[in-house]
Amino acid sequence: MNDQLEQALPFTGERFVPEKLGNIALEHLHRYHLARGLVTNRVVLDIACGEGYGSALLADQAARVIGVDIDAQTVDHAQRKYTRPNLEFMVGDCVAIPLADHSVDIIVSFETIEHHAEHEQMMHEFKRILRPNGCVIISSPDKKYYSEETGFVNEFHVKELYRDQFSDLLSKYFANVRLFNQRIAYGSAIFPEDRQGEFQNYYMSHNSVVPMQGVRHPYYHVALASDADLPAIGLGLMEQPIDESEIIGSWRQAMAEKDALVDRLRNAVAQAEADRAADQERAAQLARQVGTQNNETHYWKSVAELEKYAVGVLRREIDALRQERKAILSSNSWRLTRPLRLVRRFMKHGMKGLKAR
After folding, report:
1. Is 303 helix (H, G, I), strand (E, B) or coil?
2. Alpha-carbon distance 177 to 226, whole Å?
């Protein structure tokens, strides 16, 4: 099957590829599986389709799917990798979509809008190609929580939107808009087997539990927009075994780096001990030479040589210790284990101990 034979696209740090695991896979796959429930027997545009994995997922349910991306190499890859009778890919821009007026039922636009600044023109194009009762499902990172509060700068993003800006933009062009929140979370899930009943979310921190609406500090918003009544959508959880999660993978990597550092330090200590034994032997030879000198001039010359040698040994040991400390403080394991050190310090000294760091 072509899906298995086609070579994977390189991961750029932004465009998701299905071979990449971790949080980015959960975020992207969850959105497409959510959209999959809306597209049964519909004609679908997947704008900025990227590698094509999402378009292929949608094609399992849709009557027809057109994946459009601005990058010709990516489109060529998708055409070779994903072959379905109801799936096609083409080169195009989200502000100049190569489709006829009123030609699609559903527009899927995930993580597209932040990559350019022509948001109004993009909405005009959506309205142009969408059928009268059509629907848009679109996502956008929340500028406040994705960037400002984390201090993260995504070099691929041109214009990020706050929650209200995103909502206002969609409401300007569509009669009905509904927003959903998305963020990777750790917690407990309780869901009814029959999909009946209301959802109640809680947030727990420092032994305090408070009820809340939606997702606290969402990194992304997913929106449904249409001039017709909005379709029902299957909300829920995309779960992953904890031992396969990105955080556990990071800790394993940190521990591996720590073990490697310990091995390097152990080898350095062994070498230092060997060097010290050699230094001690050299110092003993100098001392014996000093003790056997008959000529006073030669005596004091040997003493000065011994002192100079001893100072050199001490300086080398100090430099080695400084390098070890620098390597430890700059290592990933030191940074990643900082929360554990803070917790340990807090348990021992309370808030005073934390302020000391």
Report:
1. helix
2. 7
210 is written with which tokens? 């408070």
**Which pLDDT does position 225 carry in this prediction?**
97
Give the residue from 35, 31, 69 showing the smallest Cα distance to 50.
Answer: 69
Reply yes or no on whether the pLDDT at 229 is more than 80. Answer: yes
Residue where the block lists tokens 């378009």: 55
For the segment 221-231, the average pLDDT, to the nearest whole number, is 95
User: Over 60: is that where the pLDDT of 261 sits?
Assistant: yes
H/E stretch holding 46 reads strand 43-47
Residue 188 pLDDT: 79
Report the candidate in 37, 32, 26, 33 with the shortest Cα–Cα distance to residue 48: 32
Q: By the 8 A CB rule, do 45 and 122 touch?
A: no
Token pair 């001392």 is found at 287
3-state secondary structure of 355: helix
Q: What are phi and psi of 211, to 5 degrees?
A: -75, 155
- The structure tokens listed for 218 are 């969402």
Burial class (CB in 10 A: 0-12, 13-18, 19+), 266: exposed
Can you list the domains of the chain with their CATH numbers? 2-240 (3.40.50.150), 249-355 (no CATH)
Report, as an integer, the average pLDDT of 29-40.
92
d(CA 260, CA 267): 11
Measure the CA–CA gap between 70 and 237, rounded to whole angstroms: 31
DSSP string, 161-199: B-HHHHHHHHHHH-SEEEEEEE----S-----TTS-S--
pTM across the whole model: 0.66
Closest CA to 139 of 56, 40, 16, 20: 16
Lowest mean pLDDT among 69-73, 121-125, 154-158, 234-238: 234-238
What is the token pair recorded at 5?
Answer: 């034979």
Q: How far is CA 344 from CA 38, 85, 283, 353, in A?
A: 49, 59, 44, 10
Between residues 230 and 14, which one has the greater pLDDT?
A: 230
224 pLDDT tier (thresholds 50, 70, 90) = very high
Residue 344 in tokens = 């340990």
3-state secondary structure of 285: helix
